[in-house]
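From the pipeline queue, job 12 of 40. The input is one protein chain; the requested action is below.

Action: predict structure.
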Amino acid sequence: MDTEQENSLSMYEVLVKTSYQTQITEPDDKECSNPVAFGSGFIVEFDDTDFFVTADHTVHLDDYEEAEERSWKDYVVSIFNNYSPPENFLSTVVTPLGGFYYMEQFHLDKPKELPKPVDITVCVLKQKHFQYPFLTTGINFSETDNVNPGEQKFKIKKDCFTTPNTNDSYCVFGAVKTKIIDNIKVDREFTLKPNLKFISENGDFYLFNAPDLILDKDDWRGLSGSPVLSEEGQCVGVICDVLENSKSIWVMPISKVQMLIEVAIQQEELENNKNDRNEK
């Protein structure tokens, strides 16, 4: 999705087509058939390379609990394609990912403290990840605003990155309360969170406020990793957490995403150069 494209679409369509639902499974679940949690993410096209972006706590579930040290256990994140192949039309395809890049934060004046994970992660998408299309599900927001099923989802380009301001309103879209029934049917509720307001920068995060108190975190659980978009379709960050019984929403700035993507590009180039030398 680029600036010209977003101007010809409704905000509802932009939200649905840029948010990808994910499932999280144990590393030894080779079939990715028993999800332990669900999340969200989005695809960024950056300098001709595609990246999947999500919250790091969906990959490292155990490392965001109160623990003395990191477990380094990488859960498997898979994207829902919302596509059923002709040879097995009852199944729902998911695309497993791997090779995530992540960041840690440490204090030079506190060398004995363990580094803390930064709640953002990206992975490079290869050709194999596009074996099946990533499609929309049919969603009706109102009598006049709807998104048809089976339409191709979008990538967010870096010219859509921006910083938030206190004058605009922002939105998040995704699926919550997801269940897999009989290993086939996906039961979920799609939710639109509109009229989010930017309050301030707070440490690593942006602080946004919802229009109303967040009384039940389950109404937001599953949105972690979703892009936070302005009403013009500009991406300001990645939703990471909300605080129950408050209006507080914690968003990782898109600038942190860009920083990690640039590091990933450098690392990929180094690895490719190393492989080229070994082949000679």
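Job complete. The radius of gyration is 19 Å.
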